[in-house]
Amino acid sequence: MLSARWPVSDGKAYIAALEACEGVHHGHVSEESAQESFLLALKEAEIPYSTDIER
User: Fold this and answer.
1) Mean pLDDT in the chain?
2) Cα separations (Å) of 17 from 21, 54, 55?
3) Whole-model pTM?
C-alpha cells in the first residue's frame, strides 16, 4: 500500500513508515512501532482512518 498507492511520496511520516515496515521485514523494528509510523503517515496524507476494530 505504501509503495504502490500512497497519495504523497515525500512526507517525513511516509518515509518513516516505509523504513519501519522494511525494518519489521528484517526483524529490526517491532510491529507496534511500524503500526504507529503507518498511522502517522495516514494522518500526514490526510487519509481518514479508525483504530476501532469490530470483533
Assistant:
1) 92
2) 6, 25, 27
3) 0.85
